[in-house]
Amino acid sequence: MANLDIVKPENLVYTKTKVLTDNVMHYCPGCGHGTAHRIIAEVIDEMGIQDKTIGVSPVGCSVLAYNYFDVDFQEAAHGRAPAVATAIKRLNPDCFVFTYQGDGDLAAIGTAETIHAANRGENITMVFINNGIYGMTGGQMAPTTLVGMKSATTPYGRRVDLNGYPLRITELLATLPGTYYVTRQSVHTPANVRKAKAAIRKAFENQKLQKGLSFVEICSSCNSGWKMTPVQANKWMEENMFPNYPLGDIKVDGKLCENITADRLVLDHPLTVVNK
Amino acid sequence: MAFKGQIVIDTEHCKGCGVCVEACPMKCIEISKNVNSKGYNYTHTVNDKCIGCASCAIVCPDGVISVYKVKC
């Protein structure tokens, strides 16, 4: 079966980047975190900035991100990664500083830090992994949980009257003058991974311009939290999450994209109701 | 111009999530009946139709796939 004549170093077209360590990731099988880690590492590798990149890891599933990146890392208190990244960037303005946060960290406990870091226009890159659930603690409702979506704390589905609306923090940040690049991507298909990687590359390169914060949201599935297989979870995400969290650039080079109307920023509520 | 490819899967690090199986346009990856030392059913190639597009490696969350490609 295997055509071993082809397996030679000169024919290698793709392998795991050296910016990621050889540690086995603790993430569940099929988790988008692994893919997101890899594309960030590839961008760092391609830009040749491994020795001057400093990451800030959050609390959540990706709390151990520093075990997997072969770059300098700082662990922040829950939700405080943008504040820590602000200090690191101001003290080391030549370094490339990024935060890597999940939705519980960035959009719940860290909302204040996130919004103020964006409003100050810090020259950092924020990578936000949105899976609509608290993955690490066992699948409780997050601010980003969709209306009608079942979780450990909303077993009959999220209700607007009881639990409020899903928080679309990416759209929220796009309205602030301090952000320079705001986009939403996903990592469930090869095409989306390539687009997400291009977005992360742009977000890192924006740090050279000193024009403001770059924010990349990556929609990811949480198959364990959603109680599905990885492939089903990716399909479910496509069908249910993307109507509520539309993919694409929202703000590029400090200007809202042409297709981003006021209606798109302030979606008419209630949002698409999912039945899971 | 056609390309011929071959993937090498680090089966010990594979978690058998099956995302690569869905991503492969040539349907040459399947989940094995065998397990690795962690008990995961790892993926393996089942035919030689691989064109070296690297779609599987790009979506692999654990980065266990290396892709080799030649012109033919």
Structural notes for this entry:
Chain A is α/β, with parallel strands linked by helices. Chain A has a single domain, classed as Rossmann fold. Chain A contains 10 helices and 9 strands. In chain A, strands 3-2-4-5-7-6-8-9 form an 8-stranded mixed β-sheet, with helices on both faces. Chain B has one domain (3-71): 2-Layer Sandwich (Alpha-Beta Plaits). Chain B is 14% helix and 36% strand. Chain B has 72 residues and is mainly β. The mean pLDDT of chain B is 92. Chain B has 2 helices and 4 strands, in the order βαββαβ. Classes of the chains: A alpha/beta (276), B mainly beta (72). At the A-B interface, strand 1, helix 1, helix 7 and helix 9 of A face strand 1, helix 1, helix 2 and strand 4 of B.
Short description:
The complex is a heterodimer of chains A (276) and B (72). Chain A is of the alpha/beta class and 276 residues long. Chain A has 10 helices and 9 strands.
How would you summarize the topology of this molecule?
The complex is a heterodimer of chains A (276) and B (72).
Chain A: E1 12-14, H1 32-47, E2 53-57, E3 72-75, H2 81-91, E4 96-102, H3 103-109, H4 111-120, E5 125-130, H5 160-163, H6 169-174, E6 179-186, H7 190-209, E7 213-219, H8 223-226, H9 230-244, E8 248-252, E9 255-256, H10 262-265
Parallel strand pairs in A: 2-3, 2-4, 4-5, 5-7, 6-7
Antiparallel strand pairs in A: 6-8, 8-9
Helix pairs in contact in A: 1-7, 3-4
Chain B: E1 3-9, H1 19-23, E2 29-35, E3 41-45, H2 55-59, E4 65-71
Antiparallel strand pairs in B: 1-4, 2-3
Strand sequence of the main sheet of chain B, in spatial order?
1-4
The rough form of chain A would be described as globular
Q: Could you please say which CATH topology of chain A applies here?
A: Rossmann fold
Q: Largest sheet of chain A, order of strands side by side?
A: 3-2-4-5-7-6-8-9
Q: Main beta sheet of chain B, described?
A: 2 strands, antiparallel
Structural class of chain B: mainly beta
Provide the CATH topology of chain B: Alpha-Beta Plaits
Structural class of chain A: alpha/beta
Question: What is the helix content of chain A?
Answer: 25-40%
User: Could you say which overall geometry of chain B the principal axes of the C-alpha atoms support?
Assistant: elongated
Mean pLDDT of chain B: 92
Q: Which residues of chain B sit in consecutive blocks of at least 5 with pLDDT less than 50?
A: none
**Termini separation of chain B:** 7 Å
Helix content class of chain B: 10-25%
What name goes with the CATH superfamily of chain A?
Thiamin diphosphate (ThDP)-binding fold, Pyr/PP domains
Supply the number of helical segments of chain B.
2
Task: State Rg of chain A.
Answer: 18 Å
CATH architecture heading of chain A: 3-Layer(aba) Sandwich
Can you tell me the number of structural domains of chain A?
Answer: 1
In whole angstroms, the N-to-C terminal distance of chain A is: 41 Å
**Can you count the beta strands of chain A?**
9
